[in-house]
Structure formats: C-alpha cells, structure tokens
Amino acid sequence: MKIALLALLFAAQADTAYFQQDIAYRIEATLDEGTDVLTARARLDYTNNSPDTLDSLYFHLELNAFRPNSAWARRELEYGERRFQDLGPDDHAFERITAIRVGDTPVRPEYRGAPDSTVVAIALPQPLPPGARTTVMIDWQTRLATEPRRQGRRGRHHDFAQWYPRIAVYDHTGWATRPLLPQGEFYGEYGTFDVTLDVAADQVIGATGVPVEGDPGWAAARAGGPEPWLKRDAYDAPAPQPLGLLDDAPAEGRKRVRWYAEDVHHFAWTANPDYIYEGGRIGDVAVHVLYQPGDTAWDDGVAVEHTKNAIAFFSDLFGPYPWPQITNVHRIEPGGTEFPMMIMDGSASEGLIVHEIAHQWVHGIFGNNEWREGWLDEGFGSFLTNWYFEAKGVPPSMWDSSLEGIRRMERAGQSQPIALESAEFRDPRTYSAMTYTKPSLVFRMLRDYLGEDTFRRALKVFYERKALQHVTEQDLRAAFETAAGEDLDWFFDQWIHTTATLDYRIESARARQEGSEWVATIEVAREGDAWMPVTLQVDGSARRLDSREPRQVVTLRLTERPTQAVLDPDNILLDIQIDNNRAAFEVTGSR
Ligand SMILES: [Zn+2]
User: Fold this and answer.
1) How far apart (Å, rounded) are the C-alpha atoms in residues 61 and 398?
2) Ligand 1 centre and the CA of 28: distance in Å?
3) 113 near 34, Cβ under 8 Å?
4) Residues 367-424: tens digit of each pLDDT
C-alpha cells in the first residue's frame, strides 16, 4: 500500500515537473540569387510555461558555425580539418541579426561565446514570469555555405536547414545553449511555423509543413506518378499576418509560397529549379520526393516506395505519423539529416531513407536533446533501421560487423560511456561508435532480454506518454519498465553510463553416462563488471542462465550423449570474446 502510494506520488511529481514552452513563428523571407543572401523578418510569440521567471532569451544562429573561427571550425582544427576555417568571404555561411526588439523595445544581441556566434542572448526589457507571453521581432540576413554540412548551396540549389534565429530550448535543466559543434546536433522547442518564402518563379521548393498558398512548383516538375497532393487544408491555418517585408506584390519573375506547420521543432526547406518531383501517399500522409536530373536510383517511384514503407513500419511500431506530409529531398551533401516532415538525403539508398524516416519518430516526435543524449535518436534510429531490414528477411548476420567493431574497441579499452555529451567523446570515431553503433546493439540486447512483444509494448507506451514532447533517457526507461513490469536500472546504468564489459566463457563441458541417461556438467565463467542473462544451448535445447555469480555449474540430465555447449548462440550479447563461448563435450568415466 505504502509502496503503491509512493509510486503514485512520484508519478504525479514527474508529471508536474515536465513543461514545454509554447512558440509560434511567423516568418517572411526573400532569397536573392544574385548574392545568395536571404533577407528575412520573424515574429516569435513565446510563452513561458516553466515555473521560472526568465530575464533573457537565447537563440541559435547555427549557420554561423560554417565560417572561420566558429567553435565548430576551431574544434575541427584539433583534428586537422580546415573545411570551414579556410572558407573565403564568398563561400562561408553567415547569419546576421540586423534588428531585434521585444515588444516595441529595441534590444541588443549579445554574443557571449564570441568569436563563436552560433548562440545569441537578448536581455528582456521586463522579466517574463511563469505563464506570461512575449513577442520578439527579428530582422536578419543569412547565407548558406558552399561547403555543405546539413545545409549548403551549389549554383541555384539551396538547402536551408537551421537558417533562422532558432529559439533555444528552456527545459528543466535551464537554457540549452551549447554552440553548434561537429559532434552533436539539435534540440528544439515545439511550435507553429507560418513561413512565406519569396523566390524566383522557377524554383521548386520542399519544406516542413504544407503549402497553404502559392505554387511550390511540384506539378510542373512532376516526372510521373500521381498528381502532387498539396493538402492545403491540412491545418486550420489563420489568415496570413504581414510583417512588412513582403507587403508589395511579388516582383516580376518571382513567386511566393506560404508554408504552415504545427507541433514541429524545426523548419527546414530546400529550393532548386532542377528538382524533379514524384509523389505518393501512405494513409493520410502525402509523400513528396524531390530529386535531381540523372538520379536513376531515385526515379520511377523507388524513393517514394522506400519512404512509404518506412513510414508504415514505424507507424506500426510506435503509433501514427502525426503530420500531414513527408518530403524526401536529394540534398547537396552526402549522408542524411532529419527535420520534421522533411528528410534531406545524399542518396536514395534504402538504408539511408529508412534511418532518416526512423528519426521522424526518434527525434521528430520524441524530441530529445541530440547533443546531450545523441544515442536516444542516433543509436535508437540505427537499431530501428536494422529492425526494418530484419522484418524484410535480411539475416541477423547484418549485425555482425557492428558487433565485431564494438567488441574490438571494448577489448582495447577504447569505449566511453554512451551517456557522455556528444562533444565530450575523445574523437569523431568514438562519438560515432558510442552514439550510433554501440547503443543500437544495446537496444537489440534489450529487445532480446524483454522479448519482442514486451519491447513493442514499451514503444507504444513511450508514444502514448511522450509523443511531440521533449524526452530523456528517464522517459524511455520508464516506458520499458512499465511494459516489462520490472526495474531496468541495472540494464540502463550498466550499458549507458559505464564502460563495463562482459565476457562469458565455457570453462569446461563434461558428460558421463549413468545407466540409460547422460549427465552433462557445464562450468560457465563470467569476466568483467557487466552482467546479462545468457542463453546456454546444448545441442538442440536452450535455457537461460539468470545467475549473477561469476561462476556457475549447470547440470543437465539428457537422454542422448551431448556433443556441444554454446553460450549466446544467437550472438546477441556484447560479449567481448566469443571464441570461448563454445566447447565440445568431453566424455568422462561413468560412475
Ligand atoms: Zn541519424
């Protein structure tokens, strides 16, 4: 009774402790392709739902990472990389605030991390108490870098990601204001975006949200397949509120497209007059694919199909895709990046598309802080991608290279705790191994330990509780614990927060005959500070060993003479040495 009451109390406290700020952006922007400069104005309505009074607001100006002397460029110098440090004045990116006011009061942007300018603070003229709302007006000019990194420009092709002054997240830990660095990505407040883009009339645009007014250019760029499904009425979008930047009618040869999105933590867009369009639908979700001339791997519905299949798979695992459309675009840079309702991909590889679509859930719908807990979306997403391929019948050996890579690092003592903040990993290789690969194997162990049904139930619980909210490891742990009905601290503490290793081995396997029976005696030893239950298979039959003792002796009575004992026969565990996991039985004298 007392325990039940306490549990209720903690649950109630956890609920009231969570808060999420409300944001609504109205943006007008015009792209001058002569200079590649985007001139823009935003009105941000910001509501403080936190229990704290705020005296400042913080914004990310993330395009300022891609220029000399940014924190990003200086970090890359440590690895002998100079791609942004040496970019010349015509090539580097910038994002410059030209005017900013709160209500009617002009304020001064403060670059407290100078010379890095990816984070800007403004002091509020009046403190903002809990429950209060304020409005910030910002004029800025921005340009993408010719060296792409999640953003970029090449000729008339522009990939606009993190292109506007993005309000930093204020959560239970305070302001999340780390400068943008090579290791670690984004964290955003959920809100509404109402964005009018003024561009050359022949541009083809893809963006977060639906085009409520104007022509994105898809119909004219369509290669075949169904007509574009614009879904202009997907939201009850209000009448557009002019900000004064685009009051006149569009100039000759220009057009305007107004986009609208709700419940998203990022607004990305891309424009390229050469895009070719293919569309489709999966349930209520419109699918838009924009690829480049000569993209034979994308065309004929291939990229559309991969996108649809991935949406269907993850909707089934977690819960429905919550937005009206998904846009998959062939960006300038190789690799891929996820934004809500939009994935920017460097190729049409099924693995890449599935990974980025997985992020629509693990990061888009479950908005984790990617630079603080990158494994929550990258490790989870890598696991989910492999799960998709398992469901397609790809054999489990697809995990082998990941397992071997991490085992090698662990044997060499090169692991670092998965829970480290991204910038704290010693180098990009370790960051990648500990943020993508190792956690994907940890999720796989958890699925095997809990059983697939329980694991699936946990994903549904996670979705029901946390969709379209910020999430942390605690939220994910809690969902798994609810579904499993057991405490999983031991599992998460050990695998996420330590570098404890595990090495099971068969010390000996002996068999002797007793009348018509065979008695098998297997000595199992475990080295290292990590523990997992392990499956012991003797010929055709398997059993799970749950003992935490470093040494255990298993005795089996069998009808036939045993031949071989194998630990972890499915190769699931992060057991750093697997050549000692099997042994042939030695027959000893009968007694
Ligand atoms: Zn990813």
Assistant:
1) 40
2) 30
3) no
4) 999 999 999 999 999 999 999 999 999 999 999 999 999 999 999 999 999 999 999 9
Q: Are residues 225 and 354 in the same domain?
A: yes
Domain boundary among the residues 155, 180, 205 is at: 180
Same domain membership, residue 256 and residue 137: no
Say whether both 106 and 174 belong to one domain: yes
How far does residue 197's CA lie from ligand 1's centre (Å)?
28
CA–centroid distance, residue 134 to ligand 1 (Å): 34
244, two tokens: 């004064």
Q: Which two tokens stand for residue 191?
A: 């809100």
Q: Are 209 and 355 contained in the same domain?
A: yes
342 CA from centroid of ligand 1 (Å): 13
Which ipTM did the prediction report? 0.96
User: Which has the closest alpha carbon to 45: 77, 14, 23, 72?
Assistant: 23
pLDDT digits (tens, 9 = 90+) for 67-110: 999 999 999 999 899 999 999 999 999 999 999 999 999 999 99
Alpha carbons 527 and 506: distance in angstroms, whole number: 11
Same structural domain for residues 197 and 270? yes
Whether residues 492 and 509 share a domain: the answer is no
Q: Which has the closest alpha carbon to 151: 278, 306, 271, 325?
A: 271
- Domain CATH for 352: 3.30.2010.30
Q: Which residues make up the environment of ion ligand 1, defined by Cβ < 5 Å?
A: 378, 381
pLDDT in tens, 161-220: 999 999 999 999 999 999 999 999 999 999 999 999 999 999 999 999 999 999 999 999
Strand order in 22-32's β-sheet?
Answer: 105-106, 94-102, 133-143, 37-47, 22-32, 191-200, 254-264, 210-213
d(Cα 469, Cα 15) in Å, to the nearest integer? 12
Q: Is 210:231 a contact under the CB 8 Å cutoff?
A: yes
Same domain, 172 and 195: no
Q: Report if residue 433 sits inside a domain.
A: yes
- Calculate mean pLDDT across residues 278-297: 97
Non-local (6+) Cβ contacts of 2 within 8 A are none
User: Which domain range does residue 97 map to?
Assistant: 30-180
Which residue type sits at 405?
G
Asked if residues 145 and 162 have their Cβ atoms less than 8 Å apart, the reply is no
Is residue 19, in this structure, part of any structural domain at all?
no
